Amino acid sequence: MRDQSCNSICLNGPEADTQNLNPNFVFKSGWAGQASDFEPLKQALKKLIPEAVFSDWQQEESKPQTCVQPCIAIGHSLGFADLISSSQTWQGAISLQGFTHFRSAAVDSCTGTPSRLLRQMQKRFSESPEKVVREFLNSAGFTDSELWPAEFALDQLSDAATQVLSEDLQRLYELNMSLPTGMNILAIATQDDPIVPASLTEYCFRGKTGVVLHWLSDGHRHAVHKHQAQACANLIANWLHT
User: Fold this and answer.
1) What residues does 215 pair with on adjacent strands?
2) Burial class (CB within 10 angstroms; exposed 0-12, middle 13-18, buried 19+) of 29
3) What confidence tens digit (pLDDT) does each residue in 129-186 have?
């Protein structure tokens, strides 16, 4: 597991009094996502919680730092699992269409993506990574050209980006984790998500201790943080004050 930290604005320790401290939201996108995807949500949150600090998750070699604000993880899709499985201590976490399992064989039922489809995707990605990324973004709801992440609008992905995406596809295949004990989690999902079916969301979050699950409608897309930014911000602000 890569050791990462939430930059220099975080709080290391579950004893934090989050009622009296300004939150530091730390964002991590999912497969083929970009930090810029969170801009609509950041703008909406800033209006509701002006004192909040925003950080994008960065890979670091150092250990998590002890800082002033409580660190709240906000991960979209695979980004949620990346954050809560890191070595950082979080005072809470927010899942945006996230999951703790993805492949159907990794769970106790038929929920999730079949193993054969993920293997096929990995094979196709090794042959034509740009095409696979575009197809995935299209299926996730990034149909308007202005919504396409800039890096993937290029004719050719960089070697570094291709390597990371390839590793993350394998991580999706292997992912099989439990939610952290004692962590308060807000899970925001959609019933019509084309990537993460409602049955998988239910399996990962329904009835779990400390989890509040909310459903939104996003028009058969996997980009609730972009298309339903205000609704997500409202849910997050309410969750923090309850």
Assistant:
1) 189
2) buried
3) 988 998 898 888 876 554 555 555 556 788 888 999 999 999 999 999 999 999 999 9
